[in-house]
UniProtKB/TrEMBL annotation:
PANTHER family: NAD-DEPENDENT PROTEIN DEACYLASE SIRTUIN-5, MITOCHONDRIAL-RELATED (PTHR11085:SF10). Residues 7-255 form the Deacetylase sirtuin-type domain. It comes from Draconibacterium aestuarii. It is an enzyme of class 2 (transferase). PROSITE patterns: SIRTUIN. SUPFAM superfamilies: DHS-like NAD/FAD-binding domain. This is protein acetyllysine N-acetyltransferase. The active site is at residue 128. Zn(2+) binds at residues 136, 139, 157, 160. Gene3D superfamilies: SIR2/SIRT2 'Small Domain (3.30.1600.10), TPP-binding domain (3.40.50.1220). Keywords: Acyltransferase, Metal-binding, NAD, Transferase, Zinc. GO terms for molecular function: histone deacetylase activity, NAD-dependent; metal ion binding; NAD+ binding. Its EC number is 2.3.1.286.
């Protein structure tokens, strides 16, 4: 996709968005696949989505429980062989600087790629979990993935020899209760919600902007195409790539 032409109307909207962020008492970002695409991470859904080329059964929790080896072989190929090398882009970096300069309180993300933390964000709620941590299916011990040797699959627990599972939400698996609870608290508390790169088609993520709006937050949305938020809850729609919009907002906030 070519870079977006900065029209007068877009410049005006960017300025208004930066003004809202400046005035905000408690701004929160809500991110999805669209922020990481430019770090080379394919989205799951939509055109060019992972599920066009890969059978999503490997990420179903029932399949993982029955056939952990097959599931792990595919998971390793999709996530672990590439995600470790992915680097945050300017959109992640601007969010981290916003937090550092107190323009932003927290990031709620649907991404499992750990790129917000890699960029320096400290308060991140990962509602779909993270690839970076593994959890034992037997005793619930947790490990940083750097402790696991993925040359031998499936990786097993050092404590009980149980099979380790990536600590991300599989299909038909519930959202981690703590992250969900905190995300909704943040949505209710914020006075500005910055939606970046997500249509949030899946529940409960889809409810976060709605909840924020119900509690009086102004909604700034950055997406390359209108989403179902655009004409319902969004106050300022920046139809741009995440990197372009965040880079412009970063300049306007003197980051
Ligand atoms: Zn264990």
């Amino acid at each position: 996709m070519n870079s977006t032409l900065l029209t007068k109307s877009l410049i005006d909207k960017l300025w208004k968005a930066s003004h809202l962020i400046r005035k905000a008492k408690y701004a929160v970002a809500f991110t999805g696949a669209g922020i990481s695409v430019e770090s080379g991470i394919p989205p799951f859904r939509g055109e060019n989505g992972l599920w066009n080329t890969t059978d999503p059964i490997f990420l179903e929790i029932e399949f993982f429980r029955k056939k952990p080896l097959q599931s792990w072989q595919k998971i390793k190929e999709i996530f672990y062989d590439s995600l470790g090398d992915a680097e945050p882009n300017i959109a992640h970096q601007v969010l981290a600087k916003m937090e550092e300069r107190s323009f932003l309180e927290t990031v709620i993300t649907q991404n499992i790629d750990h790129l917000h933390q890699k960029a320096g964000s400290k308060y991140v709620y990962e509602i779909h979990g993270t690839y970076k941590q593994l959890v034992c299916t037997e005793c619930s011990s947790e490990y940083d993935m750097s402790f696991a040797d993925l040359n031998y699959l499936p990786p097993t627990c050092f404590v009980c020899k149980g099979i380790l599972k990536p600590d991300m939400v599989f299909f038909n698996e519930p959202i981690p209760a703590f992250a969900k609870k905190r995300s909704f608290e943040e949505a209710q508390k914020c006075d500005v919600l910055l939606i970046i790169g997500t249509n949030a088609e899946v529940l409960p993520a889809a409810d976060i902007p709605i909840k924020a709006k119900e509690h009086g937050a102004k909604i700034i949305e950055i997406n390359i195409k209108p989403s179902h938020f655009t004409n319902t809850v969004t106050d300022i729609f920046l139809q741009m790539k995440a990197t372009e919009a965040m880079s412009e907002l970063g300049k306007l906030l003197y980051l």
